[in-house]
Amino acid sequence: MASGVDSSGLDNLAFDRVNDHLKGKACKTSETDGDRNKPTYCVTDVPPWYLCIFLAIQHYLTAFGGIISIPLILSEGLCLQHDSLTQSQLINNIFFVSGLCTILQVIFGVRLPILQGGTFALVTPAMALLSMPDWECPAWTKNASLVNTSSPVFIEVWQTRMRTLQGSIMVASLLQVLVGFSGLIGFLMRFIGPLTIAPTVSLIGLSLYDSAGVKAGSHWGISAMTTVLIILFSQYLRRIPIPVPAYNKIKKLHVSKFFLFQIMPILLGIAVSWLVCYLLTIYDVLPSDPDEYGYLARTDVKGNVVSEASWFTFTYPGKWGLPTVSLAGVVGIIAGIICSMAESVGDYHACARLSGAPPPPKHAINRGIGVEGVGSLLAGAFGTGNGTTSFSENVAALGITRVGSRTVILLSGFVMILMGILGKIGAIFTTIPTPVIGGMFMIMFGVIGAAGISNLQSTDMNSSRNIFIFGFSMFSALVIPNWIMKNPTFLDTGVKEVDQVLQILLTTHMFVGGFLGFFLDNTIPGTKRERGLLAWENVYLQDSSSSLETDEVYDLPFGITSHLQSQSWARYIPFCPHKGHRSQSEDNHVSQSPESEYSTRI
């Protein structure tokens, strides 16, 4: 989802944030009321406890749609279409790991209020791996009447695929750990510009059209209703406040404005459609025959999954067995990780500006990318089938709520861990009717595609050079994977491992488009202004009138920074803060990272 924000939204949340509750350093704010860089609570501030809890839950709900979508998509490639109980465990797993990684990122990583969650950048290569002939699901797993979810044969079918996916993610994540903690991210960002990121991100959304179409097509009426509701809540009603009672010491008992539709449009859209499906089910309006059109809109399709799920579930590394490694899978996942790293760097700068922090120094960015690599390593080990990355949707929420406190995000991490432990919660999510999910996918994947294209606004799109690069990259990324999937035996080098690597890379739309964009943008002559790098640099170097005066916000906790500053060798460690590491914001250069406020978190 795009990380562009609308800062004029919630000037007054349900609890009427008041400045007399501020703790710690106060933000230097601009005189302009409409200034988007005017957080009520800066990154080091601690809001009142009730506001912390409310905003922590809000951040969880903001990330809800993107996080639950990932296991629901992967379940098809893992042959789990008809095993709702295991799907619920995957949802619990990804929430648990997302919460754990959020806590690590806030405490030891970039130290900004940035939430971690699953990434769509790894979904496309994962699905490419699982769609290879060697991993194609047996025909009987697609027939609900033939699937016995407790049978050892079925369990081995999906766990074998999961273990391969786990091992591939874990090995590929080591590259991110290396790039982050070694400081190589600055070198890589010199060559990655808008014409690389735009096709890469756009194709992540566009390549998932088939999954969205299949689910929405199970009942177009229900999926259309879900789509219309989400559009209504997120676009037409987002500025309409809901009056709610509130109390504080200044205003006593009074009515406050709560922008419900702006905060949780996806959740509301799903909930209303879900309720409609439930009513249509209990009154037998929807067909009860599995072979009839519209059956999947029923809420009782998943049987007794909620009652069968345990109240508490605990995930741990190796839960699905010892991970195995596929060379082809590792190469494909690496392509997704590189895209994810580029997007995360942009999110760090957008998050810093919105939370009243100075631009992040090199050591903080290096640490942030490194910790994301550790997060993906943990996600692979815990068996989520995915990695972790920074969520742009939640960066956008900072601009809406004007609360940039990392205490809130830290609490969000604990909320997600709690949701990951409650087994009933994951089971409830799996009972969402298929067409409702399809309607949600129509919105989400469309926004991802458009948000990728929005990166081009910093380039000169009157340039025939740029039009050629983007157009050729996009079209080739649709043609080549489609042809390879229809002719899987064409790639035959005589070496099976090489064939598998080529098969995954050439059937991963975002890799084909991103690689062509990267190659052409760095080889065809063009000025910095034409390529969009100059515009990114200007945004990156701009002063923030509401940032804290120092960058101590990026120092490590528990006295670690004080100890390191006394060591002369610490200055040679790329992720260690040290005295004099940055005296001016100009030390940050676009070669380190072009900050794109319009990036999408995938």
UniProtKB/TrEMBL annotation:
Check the record and name the InterPro entries matching this protein. Answer: NCS2, Xan_ur_permease
Composition bias (Polar residues) maps to: 590-602
Subcellular location, in the record's words? Answer: Membrane
| Listed Pfam families | Xan_ur_permease
Alphabetically ordered keywords of this record: Membrane, Transmembrane, Transmembrane helix, Transport
Disordered as annotated region, ranges: 580-602
Q: How does it sit in the membrane?
A: Multi-pass membrane protein
List the molecular function annotations (GO) for this entry.
Answer: transmembrane transporter activity
Record has Zinc as a keyword: no
Q: Where are the transmembrane segments?
A: 48-74, 90-108, 169-197, 217-237, 258-283, 320-339, 408-430, 436-455, 467-485, 500-520
Q: Carries keyword Heme?
A: no
**Which GO cellular component term is one of those annotated?**
plasma membrane
Q: Which domain of life is it from?
A: Eukaryota
Q: Which family does it belong to?
A: Belongs to the nucleobase:cation symporter-2 (NCS2) (TC 2.A.40) family.
Instruction: Give the protein's recorded name.
Output: Solute carrier family 23 member 1-like
